[in-house]
Write a structure and sequence with these properties.
The protein has one domain: Thaumatin, CATH 2.60.110. Strands 4, 6, 7, 8, 9 and 14 form a 6-stranded antiparallel sheet that branches. Strand 10 and strand 11 form a beta hairpin. The protein is globular. The protein is built from 3 helices and 15 strands. By secondary structure, it is mainly β. The N terminus and C terminus are likely disordered. The longest helix has 9 residues. InterPro entries: Osmotin/thaumatin-like_sf, Thaumatin. It holds the Pfam family Thaumatin. Keywords: Disulfide bond, Signal.
Length: 243
Amino acid sequence: MTFVKLTVPFFLFAVAAESRNITIYNKCPFTIWPGILGPGNPAGGGFRLDAGQSRNINVDDAWTAGIIWARTACDGNFNCETGFCRNSEQCNGAGGVPPASLAEFTLKSWGGPDLYDVSLEDGYNIPVLIEPHGGSGCKRAGGCVKDINSECPEALSVKGHNGYTVACKSGCLGYNTDQECCRGAYGTPDKCHRSATDQMFKDACPTVILHRSVLLDLPFLCEITWFEEHEKCPACNGDLPKL
């Protein structure tokens, strides 16, 4: 049996051979609603996790283009301050509205190793860390040394109901220029250079994906026995959702 652990500050996953059992833990000091998008629509695409709770989901051993993210500060109609997918607890095939930090998985890619990464291509809401175990030379993906929301420029900031920044748009999402998005004249690896906004994201979260399309950032590849995905929430202060 293989295990994948995903955690929010910890999302924790646990995995198996023909199907993978993913255990998601919420170690944030507030409620989150994990959103799940991928083949098989695991757990109907989402559920509620109070602080300290965990829940198992099952995905195919070759789960392709799987995404897990955190929705935060959702009201009774499931209007969420970050990560909104639809007005229900289960996303049922709907993706999250950016900005939101994404944990991405393509298991048994090309019939071989697992691909995994943390993407902030469309922005950030909560820090995410994927920590693999059991493979040879596997490396952590994601993880943040500081909270991007506390440094987010006003032009990219998404405010919550309490007036604090609850998410930060990427430069591409916020400014939508060819240079920020590495497209058009900047759409090749030799022309795509990190902007000041990119550098702010990379300084805070060094191993995240920002520009996959031009191969400036690449996912991690490893034959994983099991791994942990941690969504490490910022220190408990006024910028946390008030639920």
